[in-house]
From TrEMBL:
Gene source species: Sporolactobacillus spathodeae
The keyword Transcription appears for this protein: no
Source domain of life: Bacteria
NCBIfam families assigned to the protein according to its UniProt record, in alphabetical order: glycerate kinase (TIGR00045)
Keywords of the record: Kinase, Transferase
Name of the protein in question: Glycerate kinase
Pfam families registered for this protein in UniProt: Gly_kinase
Segments passing through the bilayer: none
């Protein structure tokens, strides 16, 4: 058997935002590399880190399906939500932004005083109806600051004022929270495991909390930030009294406008790094065990990539087996070399010189394919190392 037949290449990129899904990026890398090594064995594993694109990546990687469902958007209007059922038929993956994301709001519509996560709860209920008993919930891109109260309301919880009246939806209303009624909570929640995909470690309240750090980008003025923070503190106080959970100090409770806190309290969710969840669901580590090379990448690689982004998670797996890792990116920042001390052996931009941004996005597949082919030629010149 020739060396080319022996060589296994694992291709595990994230999406290239605004241009290619993770599956499309992996296929482009494969096309380029296989021109030089047509007899090699290839494993294409679309990846994600829990944010936008996670549903599609896990569907593609596991042979699952995407389910579309109109749900309540952040301002109460219907929006075209979706979730994924993975190939095992028991695991669902939901991006909270698919129901309550900033993408649904124009700049002048952003108002975390009134935006709600109710639609997230509707997606969870739809996933339960499909038979899911393991749900991965991505906490990112939210337009909300309601601590997941809207989500919980859609699942049967009631949030009451001191007169026993149901509170309006939105973050500001939590200032009047007096009691939480769990009587009609969906009983299937207790039978379901919830993993919360998030790399955010912010607490629920305080100067590093959900309102102070993320509120302004959701439209909150300085005085509104203060009132939202007080509302979340009231929420935490009632949760502690009624449910016995001290959510204030839990790292990550402030993710997605406090949805982290709500998912911990009402779903018994566990926060985990998003890329770790995706690695587990795709069995990436097992698939790369006998590989000669791993190729990863995403749209942008910079100094922040080392903080839980997909290429670093992939590289961390590869280094368990001492496998070299190449990363491709649409854009590499000046500080991109920071990734070279975190498991990535080489990083390359796929963009051929100074070109307009839109052209770079439009030509992403061609650029990735060409770069992969040239790297394969270099790999052949260097001697195409034998399998470990």
């Amino acid at each position: 058997m020739t060396e080319e037949r022996k060589m296994k290449i694992v291709i595990a990129p994230d999406s290239f935002k605004e241009s290619l899904t993770a599956r499309e990026a992996a296929e482009a890398i494969h096309r380029g590399w296989s021109r030089v090594f047509p007899e090699a064995e290839y494993a294409l594993i679309p990846m994600a880190d829990g944010g936008e694109g996670t549903v599609q990546s896990l569907i593609d990687a596991t042979g699952g399906r995407k389910i579309e469902k109109r749900v309540t958007g952040p301002l109460g209007n219907l929006v075209p939500g979706f979730f994924g059922m993975l190939g095992d038929g028991k695991t669902a993956v939901i991006e909270m932004a698919a129901a309550a994301g900033l993408e649904y709001l124009a700049e002048d519509e952003r108002n975390p005083l009134i935006t709600t996560t109710f639609g997230v709860g509707e997606l969870i209920r739809a996933a339960l109806n499909q038979g899911a008993r393991h749900i991965i919930l991505g906490l990112g891109g939210s337009a909300t600051n309601d601590a997941g109260a809207g989500m919980a309301e859609a699942l049967g919880f009631r949030f009451l004022d001191d007169q026993g009246r149901t509170l309006p939806r939105g973050g500001a209303a939590l200032a009047d929270l007096a009691a939480i009624d769990c009587t009609d909570a969906d009983p299937r929640l207790a039978e379901t495991r919830f993993d919360l995909a998030s790399d955010v470690t912010n607490p629920l309240t305080g100067p590093n909390g959900a309102s102070a750090v993320f509120g302004p980008q959701k439209g909150a003025a300085p005085e509104q930030v203060a009132s939202l923070d007080q509302a979340l503190a009231q929420f935490a106080s009632v949760v502690y009294r009624d449910l016995g959970i001290n959510v204030v100090k839990i790292p990550g409770a402030g993710a997605a406008g406090g949805l982290g806190a709500g998912a911990i309290c009402f779903l018994n969710g566990k926060i985990r790094p998003g890329v770790d969840l995706v690695i587990g669901e795709t069995a990436l580590e097992e698939k790369m065990r006998d590989a000669a090379l791993v190729i990863t990448g995403e749209g942008k690689i910079d100094g922040q990539t080392i903080y839980g982004k997909t290429p670093i998670g992939v590289a961390r797996c590869a280094k368990k087996f001492d496998i070299p890792v190449i990363a491709l990116a649409g854009y590499t920042a000046e500080d991109a070399d920071r990734v070279l001390t975190h498991g990535i052996d080489a990083v390359f931009s796929v963009v051929p010189g100074a070109i307009p941004r839109q052209k770079a996005l439009n030509d992403a597949a061609t650029n990735i394919e060409r770069t992969a082919e040239n790297l394969a030629r270099l790999w052949r010149i260097a001697g195409t190392p034998q399998l470990p």
